[in-house]
Design a protein that fits this description.
By secondary structure, the chain is mainly alpha-helical. Helices cover 45% and strands 11% of the residues. This is Carrier domain-containing protein.
Length: 95
């Protein structure tokens, strides 16, 4: 998992605790629940497919990374963060 924006213009790995903090804060705002923690399950706190897509867009924009849907739905949020993957650059296709 990588994040751009180091002082030298290079790429640095994202800090999992920073990703988790951002994810939890985003979910608290989105789901209007200040009690959400990293130990919560995404579905149990009211997450669904649209929330997941919006969350992954936030993580992509902030960290260049995305969560795996199956892991996020089945495991606590803090476990899902440990399995985050870099977002691949989209390549335009031609027909």
């Amino acid at each position: 998992m990588q994040v751009s924006g180091t002082d030298d213009g290079g790429i640095r790995p994202a800090d999992p605790s920073e990703v988790e903090r951002s994810l939890v804060e985003w979910l608290r705002d989105e789901l209007e629940d200040p009690d959400i923690t990293g130990g919560d399950n995404f579905l149990d706190i009211g997450g669904h497919s649209l929330t997941f897509a919006k969350l992954n867009q936030h993580l992509s924009d902030s960290f260049g990374a995305a969560l795996d849907m199956k892991t996020t739905y089945e495991e606590p949020l803090d476990v899902a963060v440990t399995r985050i993957k870099p977002v691949e650059s989209a390549t335009p296709t031609t027909r």
